[in-house]
Amino acid sequence: MTVTPLGVPRRLLEFTLDGEPVRAPEGSTILDACRAAGKDIPTLCEGDTLTPKNACRICVVEVEGARTLVPACSRKAEAGMEVRTGTERARHSRKVVLELLASSVDLSTTPRAAEWLKEYEAEPDRFGPDAARVNEEPRVDNDLYVRDYGKCVLCYKCVDACGDQWQNTFAISVAGRGFDARIAVEHDAPLADSACVYCGNCIEVCPTGALSFRSEFDMREAGTWDESRQTRTTTVCAYCGVGCNLELHVQDNEIVKVTSPHDNPVTHGNLCIKGRFGYQHVQNRD
């Protein structure tokens, strides 16, 4: 029998969301309230296991009395506030942000990006063929995961996951300035020469596919990656006694990658190198 902890009761706040009165627990963000109300607000940099970074600015909404649009992922809901999510101003802002991102990086492996571009009628090509793009070749320098910075939107989620929010390895950070800013290990050295411990927790939080399993990357290159044919099975890692939950992604009777449920109280989506990458012995048929 599974017992779900109730936690500390929180006072409910009442405010207006798109003209309708809603209630949300104290401490909730506007984005939390929108999701609870069934409103679909796009976001890239928000992660359910990380502190909001306010980097992508796609989730902006209008709040009565606020001078500027506010990021729904980090702005706390307040009693009596009036929030409007689908105003022309908010939609135009999202459209421009999507256009700027899509014109500079490859969003082909970003979940729902094509849907959002269509919904907001974004036209990345309007900047012309001379628009600056991050045309960087994927870095395939190890057998575990690939860094494709041509897909990176600088959401900083990988930096936070590697840093003080989870792993505390501090192997990666932001290097450069302006358009030349990029995610890199110390001195932009090869990954094998860095402090990286190959836990893969940066892959877990990456929203665009800029960081991906080597297995997934190779299958996408070969045209065989098909999530519609994949099943997911939750099990427990057997490498040690911590009890981390693993979610096995299986395609054609082969494990193609391993993740961990974000709502698991042990892992919160995080794993070590063995849990995330040490699965090949299961299907070694030699």
Topology at a glance:
Layout lengths: L11 E6 L2 E6 L4 H7 L23 E4 L6 E2 L10 E3 L3 H17 L8 H7 L25 E3 L9 H6 L9 E4 L6 E4 L15 H5 L5 E3 H9 L7 E7 L8 E7 L2 E6 L13 H5 L9
Q: Main beta sheet, described?
A: 5 strands, mixed
Give the H and E element order.
Answer: EEHEEEHHEHEEHEHEEEH
Strand order of the largest sheet: 2-1-5-3-4
Report low-confidence residues grouped into runs of 5 or more. none
Number of strands: 12
Question: What is the 3D shape?
Answer: globular
Individual helix count: 7
Structural class: alpha+beta
Helix proportion range: 10-25%
Q: DSSP strand (E) fraction?
A: 15-25%
Descriptive overview:
This protein has 286 residues and is an alpha+beta fold. The protein contains 7 helices and 12 strands. The protein has helices at 30-36, 88-104, 113-119, 157-162, 201-205, 214-222, 273-277; strands spanning 12-17, 20-25, 60-63, 70-71, 82-84, 145-147, 172-175, 182-185, 211-213, 230-236, 245-251, 254-259. It has a 5-stranded mixed beta sheet, sandwiched between helices. The protein has a 3-stranded antiparallel beta sheet with strand order 10-11-12. A hairpin with an 8-residue loop joins strand 10 (230-236) and strand 11. The two termini are 40 Å apart. Residues 11-89 form the 2Fe-2S ferredoxin-type domain. It comes from Streptomyces althioticus subsp. attaecolombicae. Keywords: 4Fe-4S, Iron, Iron-sulfur, Metal-binding.
